[in-house]
From TrEMBL:
It comes from Exidia glandulosa HHB12029. One of its GO terms (molecular function) is metal ion binding. This is Terpene synthase. Its cofactor is Mg(2+). Belongs to the terpene synthase family. Keywords: Lyase, Magnesium, Metal-binding. The lineage of its organism: Eukaryota, Fungi, Dikarya, Basidiomycota, Agaricomycotina. Its EC number is 4.2.3.-.
Length: 311
């Protein structure tokens, strides 16, 4: 995979940055495996281990520690070599917020708490892991200084981009999650519960919102330099060039997430490319138990995944 990515991104990312990105994605998935469906206390301990490994990259890990600790440490040891101090500060800040959201998700799960749609979106912006993932494109210093990334107009764009990613990710992951009775933290479920609608009604809502967010993202992209000037920020030609690179980098994430969802095998096995064409996938039967907490029909039905193009 590293060789393929190097070929695809040779004009924008060096091999070292791509390796950091691959390692980070693997760390996200490993954290998922250690925290999905676990009680809050277990999730808290897991997240504490990850954070300790990142904050202490040279500290020997305790004997017998779960795998996520050493993996997080090895990822960060390598990332430090290929990133600027400002990029690392940005990552640690945003990754800590991601870990906090994983703990909140577990707490909600323990309490069977049903979030409102807006509460879910607010939590999931951090939970989707987009902002720490943006670190991959900031390691070389070609994009804006880390301090710029926390400016309100820039952070607003990141929030919109995060919502685009979470909408697309939740749609494609829903079938796998409902089969494991683990779809409570999914925008499809949240909409069905809050709006008292069915699966198709939830999907229609998501598609409308996705299209609206695309328009907002493009409008913010066009107005970002002027908005920063209006806030009293000096935007030099160099800064404007960096912002342009950062906007392009950020805009690639929703599309990249879409392609990965169909190509990786995580959600659709070896049928991903076929499903990407047909947009039809057979609903998976329950695997974990006969308990159907979401009240979904269990017939052998076909689920439609709408086409949502990202410009």
């Amino acid at each position: 995979m590293l060789r393929r990515l190097r070929h695809c991104h040779s004009n924008s990312l060096v091999a070292e940055e791509i390796r950091v990105g691959c390692d980070l994605m693997n760390l996200f998935f490993l954290i998922d495996e250690y925290t999905d469906r676990q009680p809050r206390e277990v999730v808290q301990t897991t997240c504490d281990i990850v954070l300790d490994a990142l904050n202490n990259p040279e500290k020997p890990r305790p004997e017998g520690e779960i795998l996520v600790g050493p993996v997080a440490q090895l990822f960060w040891q390598n990332a430090i070599k290929h990133s600027t101090p400002e990029a690392r500060r940005f990552f640690m800040k945003t990754f800590s917020l991601y870990l906090d959201s994983v703990i909140v998700q577990a707490d909600n799960r323990d309490k069977n708490y049903v979030r409102t749609i807006q509460e879910y979106i607010d939590m999931r912006r951090d939970n989707i892991g987009l902002r720490p993932s943006i670190f991959i494109g900031t390691t070389s210093g070609k994009t804006p200084r880390t301090t710029m990334l926390f400016w309100v107009p820039v952070a607003t764009r990141e929030c919109v981009c995060g919502e685009l990613v979470l909408a697309g990710s939740d749609m494609v992951s829903f079938n796998k999650e409902q089969a494991s009775d683990d779809a409570e933290c999914n925008i499809v479920t949240v909409i069905m519960q809050n709006l008292r609608t069915d699966y198709l009604g939830a999907i229609e809502w998501i598609v409308r919102e996705h299209k609206r967010l695309q328009r907002v993202f493009l409008e913010l992209a066009a107005s970002l330099p002027q908005r920063l000037r209006d806030d009293g920020v000096e935007v030099t030609p160099r800064t404007e060039e960096q912002l342009g690179l950062y906007i392009e980098h950020m805009a690639q994430w929703p599309r990249a997430n879409k392609q990965w969802s169909f190509e990786s095998g995580r959600y659709f096995g070896d049928k991903g490319l076929e499903i990407q064409e047909t947009r039809l996938v057979r609903k998976l039967p329950k695997r974990a138990s006969d308990d159907n907490k979401l009240g979904l029909p269990q017939a052998n039905v076909i689920i439609t995944i709408p086409t949502v193009e990202v410009g």
